[in-house]
Structure formats: structure tokens, C-alpha cells
Design goal:
about 280 residues; three-stranded antiparallel sheet; 10 strands; globular
Length: about 280
């Protein structure tokens, strides 16, 4: 059963009138571009969806919740990364939250950048805004984009001292692409070695998607990482539906990248109405 069918089967159509959105608009950081403010106005905190007449049932759940975007913004101000890599761009709402916080934290520092990867080009929210100058969009899959950065990392490390370890390319990874186990474990194995020791990884949908949850379990089982998973507010308008959830990860030290567990190949969602894998479901 698809998500739109699940919504119709389990509840009456959600009221997508964003009655609480003005409160979230007031919570937006000062200087947020007008196009982003309007995007937030289309958000309904009761469901966690955005009004979109082209989406099933007129509700779009592909962007992170506004509350999660604001969390990413706050964490960027708190952790003060300069070099961010994101997978899964969609319209670029989370990308813009990251870029706005980078500009606030580091002013005109030329080292700040957000690289965002997604194979499907769209009308991105940062276009023609002051955020565009620090955002680089790559229209590829994360696996196809990775060799460019792997080659750059080799050059950086060869110039620094030779061999493995040492300088890294990124201070923050934000991984939110297609949520299959195969994809997220591949992204972790490809990009985590490019992350600075002491850097962080942010993952969305770690409770809703069991594929992401299994990858988080591997992070949690490794002594190289510290993890924390929190609920997030999206309900999809379905009583009892799992929240997407967010996981915050700190890289404590370098080591062997995570390896894919063949038992979980193809794992994606699981039963949305049962407890999340990271909340005890097995």
C-alpha cells in the first residue's frame, strides 16, 4: 500500500490549512530570503507536510519538516562547520537552512560552502537569493559524485603528509537521500572517511525508514561514533504513524569505514504503524 493510500485508509483527508505556520514564520532566523518564508507558510505542523497541488492529495512530504530545518540551522550555528556535504536536495529547504547558518556563523569567510547532491534537478529555493553563492549543486547520485571528492581527498592528504589520515574535506555531512539501506550505508562508507575527526553527521528519517535505522545501528555499535536519535513532528496525517526522526552523530576518531551487511540489502521502510527499529522493533 502506498503512502497516499495508507493516509486515505487510516484517516480522513488531513486539513492542510497551515494554521500554525505563522508561529513558525516568526521563529525563522532574521534575514531568511522571502521565497523561503513563503515556503514555510505552506507548511502544516499538524501533518508535517507542505501544500503542493501537484503532489498526491495536495500534500508534499519530501522536504524536511520546518522544525527539522530550524534544528539543522541551530546545529550549524552551534557546531560551526565551514564545509558541508548534503545528499538529497529536493527543493533545497534544508540546504538553505544550512547555508543561511553558515553565512551567519562565518560572515564572508571564503572557505564556507554547502555541496548538495541529488540526481533530479528542480527549481531550487536558493536560486536568485544571497545564499546561492556558497551552494554548489551536483546533479548526480551520491555514488556517481563521490569519485571527484575521493580524488580531491587524496591530493589534500598527499600534500599534507602522505598516506591515510590527516586533513579532511568536510566538517558536517547531512545524509537524506533515498533512504534504502544500500544507499545510506554506501554514502556512509564513501563520505565518512572525508569527514573531519570531531565532525558530525545529521540523518533525517532514521525512525521512519528501517533502511536508515539499520545503518544507524551500525554507527551506534562502533566505538568510533557517538549517536543520539530524536523524534521529529511529522505524522503524515495518519494516527499512530512513525515519526521521521533525526539522528545526530559525532565522529570520535578515524578507522575502517562501515561495511554493508548483506542481510539488509534492499531494506527500506518496514511497517509504518509499528514501532521503529531504533525504538526496539526487530
Amino acid at each position: 500500500m502506498g503512502l497516499s493510500q495508507l493516509i486515505r485508509a487510516r484517516s480522513s483527508p488531513p486539513d492542510q490549512t497551515p494554521s500554525e505556520a505563522p508561529g513558525l514564520v516568526q521563529a525563522l532566523p532574521r534575514g531568511f530570503p522571502a521565497v523561503l518564508v513563503e515556503y514555510v507558510r505552506s507548511y502544516n505542523p499538524a501533518t508535517g507536510g507542505y501544500t503542493n497541488r501537484h503532489a498526491p492529495d495536495g500534500v508534499d512530504y519530501a522536504s524536511v519538516e520546518v522544525e527539522v530545518g530550524l534544528l539543522w540551522h541551530a546545529l550549524t550555528l552551534l557546531l560551526r562547520p565551514r564545509r558541508v556535504l548534503e545528499t538529497g536536495t529536493y527543493r533545497g529547504f534544508s540546504t538553505c537552512c544550512l547555508a543561511h547558518a553558515l553565512k551567519a556563523a562565518h560572515a564572508d569567510d571564503p572557505r564556507t560552502s554547502v555541496v548538495t547532491i541529488d540526481p533530479e534537478p528542480r527549481n531550487h529555493l536558493w536560486i536568485d537569493t544571497p545564499l546561492a553563492d556558497i551552494i554548489r549543486y551536483i546533479p548526480k547520485t551520491s555514488q556517481d559524485a563521490a569519485p571527484e571528492f575521493a580524488a580531491r581527498l587524496r591530493v589534500v592528504r598527499d600534500n599534507a603528509r602522505g598516506g591515510d589520515g590527516g586533513p579532511a574535506l568536510f566538517d558536517l555531512l547531512v545524509l537524506d537521500s533515498d533512504h534504502h539501506y544500500d544507499t545510506i550505508i554506501s554514502e556512509l562508507s564513501l563520505f565518512e572517511p572525508m569527514l573531519e575527526v570531531g565532525g558530525h553527521i545529521l540523518l533525517h528519517d532514521s525512525l521512519y525508514y528501517d533502511g536508515v535505522g539499520r545503518a544507524v545501528e551500525q554507527l551506534r555499535a562502533s566505538a568510533r561514533f557517538e549517536t543520539l536519535t530524536l523524534d521529529s513532528p511529522r505524522t503524515h496525517g495518519v494516527p499512530g504513524c512513525r515519526p521521521p526522526g533525526v539522528t545526530l552523530v559525532r565522529k570520535a576518531r578515524d578507522g575502517e569505514p562501515l561495511a554493508a551487511d548483506p542481510r539488509f540489502r534492499g531494506l527500506h521502510v518496514g511497517d509504518r504503524l509499528q514501532a521503529a527499529l531504533l525504538r526496539g522493533a526487530r
